[in-house]
Amino acid sequence: MSGNQGLLERYARVAGAEAVAQMQQLAEKLRGARVVHVNSTAYGGGVAEILHSMVPLMKALGLEVSWEVIQGPPEFFEVTKRFHHALQGRRVDLTEDHLRLYQEVNQKEAERLADKLSEADFVIIHDPQPAYLIRYLPKRRGYWIWRCHIDLSRPFYPVWRFLEKVIVQYHASIYSMPEFSQPLPHPQYIIPPSIDPFSEKNRELAPEEVFRILKDLGLDPSRRLVVQISRFDPFKDPLGVMRAAELAQKFISFQLVLAGGGAADDPEGERVYQEVVQAARGKKDIYVFKLPPEAHRTVNALQRAADIVLQKSLREGFGLTVTEAMWKGKPVIGGATGGIRTQVVNHHTGFLVNTPEGAALRIRYLLFYEEKRREMGLKAREFVRQNFLITRHVRDYLALMLSVCMGSPDRLELETGEACVWPPVEPGPPPL
Amino acid sequence: MAEKDRIKYPGPFVVKDCALVSVSTGEKAYTLAELVEKIKKIDPSSIHHHFWARHLRPSFDHPEFHNDFAAWVHMEVRDRILAERLNLISPHEYASMEDLREALILLIQERVFEDEHLGWRKAENPFYFVKSQLIIFDTGMRLEWPHEIADVLESFSPGTIFYHFIDARRRNPQGLDDFRNWIRQFPPDYKPLEDLIAKVDPFFLSLYEIRDFLIRHIRTFCARIHALREEPSRRKKGFPRPREGG
Question: Cβ of B155 under 8 Å from any chain A Cβ?
């Protein structure tokens, strides 16, 4: 059995043979297409995790796929972090120097990656960091698609205006939710992200290993555990989570863990982490862990050991940690925002809340009703299996790629027996 | 004489699959007045999407509301009366998307006339108009006789069920699903099977539930065929023989 076949069979065992057959049938029509993904970090954060799984799976389906990471000085990532905040609706100060630095790094990276990107049939640019590459590659031949992973529903306008100037040059863009799309002159696809059931973060773990990891962290495996796993970012509301735990702990005893990793493109994380550590100082049963980007098994163990998982974000693109927890059969108490609302079906797979008080009440309720926790957890796992595994995500990308290169018709009937529709026609000029 | 020669054989059933990608139309509405204006102009594929695409996108089995308009009116406009009325709309009762569009507009307008403030009540979150693109592909699977459906149904993806059961109602005359459209071209012995399939109301069932329903009922039907074969005196002329073990 070839490695590719083995990989596909593994996914078929979890996602279903029909899910893999669908991907194969779509990929057959794109066989040999050269696809390049570009983002700004190889480790840490949801985008890198998705690409670690998506790239090998797309290769196994017969596409020529590569993944490029743009590089830049720390100041560049300070600027792009402000972009990130601004696009999620926060007012930020961005000077002419900041914008110049952003463009200079994109220009330099465009020169470095020119051969690869100019020749690719599909270039998928993830998030705003590398968005300006397109401006510096006028001789590109393939379809360029901008994949926005963040909540763009109410961007801080001056920053969106700056970015929009180049986004209009893409042939299509992708968002996790319809709310995040903006008026643009090209098709805007809605594709929720996904998790990989075989990644270090999601694979099955032996109970002994979970026990050992908890002991190593100084936690008591015999006591109830509530966790929030996310970057240390104000939008994840770690202080609100702490407040919710304190309110609930007046009535019921449990350990709260706030754990998060950093990412190479997130310089603000350290500052927020220090704030959270300061706030937790002296508080019983509240634990704050800064985890290295490679601590996937630790995250896995914490989610598996948890009785409840929180993701009380104030703004959220999608919230992959919610999907991860649901896959492990845990009810999730999530902030009623962004993609969390798509995943947490209120009263079925968890609860949606708006305040620390709301979260506190739901923590008490779920810790009290063990049977309800179990029932919600089972529903949550099946919900993820049907909707949020990497196989569905790859299938949607393949469908989108076919749709884009066929002119985005409402219906596209692929001809029987035709081995490969690629390349169909030369891509048209950019929309503007 | 071969079975296919004895009857007017309509040809094999071509099993197809589909993937649906959602595309934002960029249109949104904050009030019922705005919603009506947008519905008047929106692409018909968007109306279809808001009634049917929930089957192929992340949602929950047995949701309280059966179309996106009813859910939005309930959750965001907070008018339970209109939400209940919209929830009752069965889209396959309408001959075309234009008829369905008209019914939606009438229902919303009627409610707005009942309560003059309602038309301008601002929703907490807007209604986002989305449409779907359907990518259809041939699975290579062919069925020779109707009773073979039961053998292969378990391997059908939700996309296959969606294409042959829900999308088909837009394509076929009289709004039939593809299975019934094919079966009715066979001799009348298959009429009971057609009637069984007609009992499925896809509006209330998830794609997995539709699949399970068909498996259960078609297997029961096949068992009856076997029973008839065992009693030749009762066997009707023209009834094709099922495959062994089928």
Answer: yes
